[in-house]
Write a structure and sequence with these properties.
heterodimer; A: about 350 residues; alpha/beta; 6-stranded mixed sheet; B: about 260 residues; alpha+beta; 13 helices
């Protein structure tokens, strides 16, 4: 059963709700323990600057959603502190909820209401009425590409349409900070790209701070200004995608021998330049280069010297998966097969 | 949609008007109704929703008739095919309502016996399962809405009253003297259908009185005192999970009301 976790608004801070605050997110030593099981979040420190898109990358069960639930006041932290938009998530829950929008994994949609009715409900809750309500609803429906489907019941929407409607609902009150919990999971490429464009626009043009969790490497790479990689409740790496890749991972060389009998020879040559790795095409041999060891020209010369004929030779730039591998010893895909140790949210708004 | 989330949002939105709601407890859940919508939340986590019937405007304006229309409308979640009662239960309730019609023409001994049987059967129906606890939960949820203490009530930090001025128990307590007085001073010669006519008129008159009393809270507290006393028997202190069942139904009705403006 759900439980409330925040203080009554009547006993909350006396500071003005509308007083301008920084659109940042900060957490110090944030911990969340559940009754049965390990710490879902184990001492997270992070800071997201105003207008920044922060990608929180990790496998299933890493603690991403639990972190978002704490930052959006849905779940009280077991230890540590966090401020969102300058407000303490425990002591100033109502103020936090006014400042943020959130589209969480469990889309808070009613299948029997239309898209437009959802917007009417959400705008009413935020005190937007009359002509302003109609204008805002129309604007958001257009922005997420749901104008034509606006008067259809949500039960007939596709997964992508539901996600887009959820995003529109989270934006109703023009939040300064937006939390998106795996917003593109299960979406087709087209819907995913459309959502990325909109999220990017929000940050760039409207200065909205975006906290985005994802298990998709590409999403973090393309969208995020900075990435935090989380595993087993701890942040194992943090920085811009470029810096993370440059700091930790090295390029990978992938070769396909022209003659399958020369496979052993190819392995032998390539292993002089790095460690063999997996996850590439069938029949290919891949080696992750050590930082100081060789370049493509040297590799080609070495292969040529052994009289090896290749049908294909490629060099792959490092990915965030390489960063994850370097930090955890595992690939991101499939790393979270263990179920996420999360309970029901103990309180509150799916969107504030 | 998570009811706790919704209720928190609702409470924090000072501009959202509070619609007038009522309710009905059942053995396995709580029905909450507004003017336009009803929702049933079950103790098993189920949720069913529907629209309330709209009576013709002309009928709603006629004194006495309007009360009967309102009364029958409030029972619609029970009697609708896609409502909260199963077919057998609907049959039983219809039989119980129609019994006086038939028994009016039956010999006295049969009428009396059947009357007792029907009354006990209805009492058994009313008191089955955890109805009384859920009845308390229903009142608590509505009181929480009116006092804007939904979050605290969900959490169990607040326990708004389980007694309600608008409870059906109060209506029954008001109906009884009206029916007795009506029967005692009935001006026309008694016939076989007199008890039936008196009963229907008493219902209509009580509804008028009920509406009047509800609009005068101070008077209501005095007039409805016997009913409030009776609620000590017809409600029990609900557990938190039972209160949450009622709050879940309440959240569903509020959501529909706000979504449809």
């Amino acid at each position: 059963m759900l439980q409330f976790s925040v203080e009554n608004s009547r006993t909350g801070s006396l500071r003005g709700v509308d007083a301008p605050r920084e659109n940042s997110i900060e957490a110090h030593g944030l911990v969340r323990e559940f009754k049965k099981g390990p710490r879902a979040v184990d001492g997270i420190d992070l800071r997201v600057d105003p207008g920044e898109i922060y990608g929180f990358l990790g496998p299933n069960g890493a603690g991403k959603s639990t972190t978002v639930h704490m930052l959006t006041t849905l779940l009280p932290p077991t230890a540590g502190t966090a401020t969102v938009a300058g407000y303490d998530v425990v002591k100033e829950g109502p103020q936090v909820r006014k400042a943020i929008g959130a589209a969480l994994q469990e889309a808070a949609l009613d299948p029997f209401l239309t898209g437009r009715e959802h917007l009417r409900l959400q705008t009413t809750m935020h005190g937007i009425t009359g002509e302003e309500r109609r204008e805002r609803s129309d604007e958001l429906l257009t922005r997420v590409g749901l104008t034509e489907a606006a008067d259809r019941k949500v039960k007939g929407y596709s997964g992508g349409m539901k996600r887009r409607l959820d995003l529109a609902l989270a934006l109703v009150h023009r939040p300064r900070i937006l939390f998106l919990d795996e917003p593109t999971t299960g979406l087709d490429v087209q819907s995913r790209t459309a959502l990325w464009v909109e999220v990017g626009r929000l940050a760039k043009e409207e200065g909205v701070t975006v906290f985005l969790t994802t298990q998709y490497l590409e999403e973090a790479d393309v969208l995020a200004d900075r990435v935090g990689i989380i595993d087993h409740g701890r942040i194992v790496a943090e920085g811009t995608p470029e810096k993370l890749k440059a700091d930790i991972a090295c390029s990978t060389v992938e070769a396909v021998p022209g003659d399958p009998d020369q496979r052993g020879a190819v392995v032998s040559v390539l292993e002089r330049f790095g460690e063999q790795t997996t996850g590439y095409g069938p029949g290919s041999i891949a080696v992750q280069l050590t930082s100081s060891n060789g370049n493509l020209a040297e590799i080609v010369r070495a292969l040529d010297a052994e009289g090896i004929v290749l049908s294909q030779l490629q060099i792959h730039e490092p990915t965030l998966d390489d960063v994850f591998l370097a930090k955890t010893g595992r690939h991101l895909e499939g790393a979270g097969d263990e179920e996420e140790q999360e309970s029901e949210p103990e309180l509150e708004p799916a969107r504030a | 949609m998570d009811p706790a989330v919704f209720l928190t949002q609702f409470e924090e939105s000072n501009t959202a008007a509070v619609p007038r709601v009522g309710g009905m407890a059942r053995a396995n859940g709580v029905v909450i109704v507004s003017e336009r919508y009803w929702a049933f939340a079950g103790t098993d986590g189920s949720l069913r929703e529907g629209r309330m019937p709209v009576a013709p405007r002309s009928l709603r304006a006629i004194p006495l008739a309007r009360g009967l229309v309102r009364l029958s409308g409030s029972l619609s979640p029970l009697f609708k095919r896609e409502g909260v009662a199963r077919r057998r239960e609907r049959g039983f309730l219809i039989a119980a309502i129609l019994a006086p019609l038939v028994l009016a023409f039956a010999p006295n001994w049969l009428g009396l016996t059947a009357g007792f049987v029907t009354t006990f059967a209805l009492l058994g129906w009313l008191l089955r399962g955890r109805t009384l606890y859920l009845h308390g939960a229903e009142h608590r949820a509505i009181a929480a809405l009116e006092a804007r203490r939904l979050r605290e009530t969900w959490k169990g930090l607040a326990r708004p009253s389980r007694f309600s001025l608008r409870c059906g128990t109060n209506f029954a307590a008001l109906l009884l003297p009206v029916a007795i007085v009506g029967g005692r001073f009935w001006p026309l010669p008694a016939t076989a259908v007199t008890p039936l006519v008196v009963s229907v008129l008493a219902l209509a008159l009580t509804m008028e009185l009920w509406q009047l009393v509800q609009s005068l809270p101070r008077l209501a507290r005095i007039v409805l005192l016997p009913g409030l006393g009776l609620q000590r028997l017809t409600t029990r202190e609900p557990r938190l999970d039972e209160t949450r069942v009622a709050l879940t139904a309440l959240a569903a009705v509020l959501r529909r009301e706000l979504a449809h403006g």
